[in-house]
């Protein structure tokens, strides 16, 4: 098991009062860029408030990031940002215990989609923030030169553009 790039362990018996600020340092940003296939992460900050809900801990706040990513069309790096609300629930792992029936289809309610199971007396808020960042990055983002790249490569023409034209080009090779 790999070590998280941005770990912030929160002990259940010592939840902070008020909002807390989590900011990735230079080494963490470099490692997160590698994890998510980004040329660079310049800033990653989350402001989170933790609230106890029985055995669960609700985490709500905001995530902001400045980073470089490759354009889905041209492949060239461009500056991008993320500003996302964060809403997670850390729940005891036994509440997600496996029923043993691997064939059984499990349907999650909307409230269960952002539940993060924890074991023991702590959870890793930093890793949860890192995962939230990874999910917020649009893998198909288009940079400012995307339209020029599409035009230069003939991707806007019906006869040379689109998925079927790309497949046909592969078949010719």
UniProtKB/TrEMBL annotation:
Pfam families: YceD. It comes from the Bacteria. This is DUF177 domain-containing protein. It comes from Qipengyuania pelagi. The lineage of its organism: Bacteria, Pseudomonadati, Pseudomonadota, Alphaproteobacteria, Sphingomonadales.
